[in-house]
Amino acid sequence: MRYYFDASADPKIFTELVRIFYSNGSGPIVGNFILTLFFGAYLIYRDYDIANLWISVSLILFIIRMSGYLYIKQRFNQLSDRIKAWSFTFGAWASAALWGILGWSMFDPNTPFDSMVIMIVLSSASCVVVPLSETII
User: Fold this and answer.
1) CA-CA distances (angstroms) from residue 128 to 36, 105, 125?
2) How far apart, in Å, are the Cα atoms of 86 and each of 80, 81, 108?
3) Distances in Å between the alpha carbon of 44 and those of 9, 76, 130?
4) Quick one: how far is CA 12 from the chain centroid?
5) Cβ neighbours for 64, distance < 8 A, ≥ 6 positions apart
6) What is the tens place of the pLDDT at every residue in 71-116?
7) Are 132 and 27 in contact (CB under 8 A)?
């Protein structure tokens, strides 16, 4: 992963890493979005005020990530490897921030069941995305 930011990295290795990332990159994006929809349904079921915000932000993030992914796939040979790498990195950081905010904002020690569900969902996020990312990395 150091090749993302290392300007002295071998260009052939860097180019191959970017190619591998974009060969199957839609799986983690879609898996992440499906998990956020399931969690949004849980928030609606439990009548949380944040449910609409959660689903809206998740949908916006999904649209941005998927449109960026499809744009880069369509113009893969025309764009520089740096742009492709930074686009992938931005999407990963944005998803991590969304899930991190969830854990921070929704965790309430006074509601152990809801806290348990949040921990299961956060664990599932890594269990869904990591195996899908395995084909990429």
Assistant:
1) 11, 22, 5
2) 10, 9, 35
3) 47, 39, 27
4) 26
5) 91, 94
6) 888 888 888 878 887 887 787 788 778 777 877 777 777 888 877 8
7) yes
Q: Residue 37 is encoded by which pair of tokens?
A: 């929809």
Q: How far apart are CA 7 and CA 4, in angstroms?
A: 8
Indicate the Cα dihedral angle 51, 115, 102, 100, nearest 10°.
-170
pLDDT of residue 9: 62
Rounded average pLDDT over 108-137: 68
Calpha distance 11→81 (Å, rounded): 9
